Amino acid sequence: LVSQLGDSRPIHSLHIGNDGAAFVEVLLGCSAGGEFQVLLPSSALMSPSESRAGAGPGRVRLFGPQALVKRPATATPTTKYDRLQVVLSQPYCQSRPYGLAFIRAFAAPEEGQEPPPAPV
Questions:
Q1: Cα separation, 92 vs 84, whole angstroms
Q2: Residue 43 vs residues 31, 40, 62: alpha-carbon distances, Å
Q3: Within a 10 A sphere around the Cβ of 81, how many other Cβ atoms?
């Protein structure tokens, strides 16, 4: 899944609503071309036993700034990332469909602005 972002500000955090996927990886890209760069390295959304049993497929995972790659290796100060590519996998149970319920990307707060409150 590739999604066009409305803004090219740095991403501060991600909220991902799972729908049966075991792993998720999120990449950043530029509409002008070039390779996608890792924003969120492959991360577990479900454990192997949960995946096999189909337990808890609708969880929401929150990935804050500490979980995201700060700056892709090939980025330059003028690079404007405006695309997200989401890669899902479910290697433990291939008989059930899987996907995402939603993904929300939050921009980093602008200078002088408070960061968004942490979810409860």
A1: 25
A2: 25, 7, 11
A3: 21
Listing DSSP states for 66-105 in one string gives TTS-SS-TT--TT----EEEEEEE--S-TTS--EEEEEEE
Beta bridge partners of 49: none
Closest Cα partner for 119 from 63, 71, 66? 63
- DSSP label of 51: H
Please name which of 115, 117, 119 lies closest in space to residue 10, comparing C-alpha atoms.
115
Tell me: the pLDDT tens digits for 46-72?
Answer: 999 999 988 878 899 999 999 999 865
- pTM confidence score: 0.82
Ranges of each domain in the chain = 2-107
| Fold held by 2-107 | Jelly Rolls (2.60.120)
Cα separation, 85 vs 37, whole angstroms: 9
Distance spanning both ends of the chain, measured CA to CA: 29
Dihedral sign for Cα atoms in the order 61, 39, 4, 51 = negative
